[in-house]
Amino acid sequence: MLSGSRLYLLSSLVITLCLVAVPLQQADAADPIEYAYPDQSVWTTFRDSNGVLKNPLLGLAKEIFNQANLDWYSTPYPAKRMFKRLKEGRSMFSMLVRASSLKECCLFSEKPITSTELRVYRRKDAPAINHYRELEGKRVVALLGYSYGKIGRYVRDNANRVILSEAARHDNAFKMLRQRRVDYVLDYAGPSEEMLEVISIPTIDYDVLTRLDVYLVLNKTYPDAQLLMQRLESIANSLDIEQILAQ
């Protein structure tokens, strides 16, 4: 029979082992991480064999999660649904701008992993645009499906007297510029550069309205979320991200 002191030590050891095992079991039992991303791409106009817009960040996610030895999968969503899923913890991971609506539910990497530009394209005979408020009274075309943040709210507000058209496709927007139906096109760097390789517009120029930094985003409910974010960011910092995105 065990003495009282030995029984106490044995009980303490069992309790300690159980406490240590709990977080490990929680982490091991975690489901594969879903990378949720917008189905409207600011990166490219190219589509895969299923007709889904390609996402260059998928290659980066693959490198990061493979090195972290984590199971994952990806799903495109309309922007509003994607944000809702991240807020509710049904999607655990994304790569996005630092959206204030996600600050309560999600962690962001300390540094951006990449960036893109929102540009306003024009013919060189049109005045340069140094600030989006200078679009007041101008003929502008925007792309359906993009919110453009505060710039989109400004140009869509009738009080600002922007003469706004909206195009369903990038090529249609630039054709409107070429035909002089509009004087300015709001578009992101990647899609616009692809379009201008096939649509010739003499003396075209652009001004950068804003630079959009993109961060790793992780839901706070993921087990040991802070430690995992540090791990993912460390891996990202070790990669040649621009080379991966160019593939």
From TrEMBL:
Highest taxon of the lineage: Bacteria
Keywords: Signal
Signal peptide: 1-29
Protein's UniProt name: Amino acid ABC transporter
Source species of the chain: Motiliproteus coralliicola
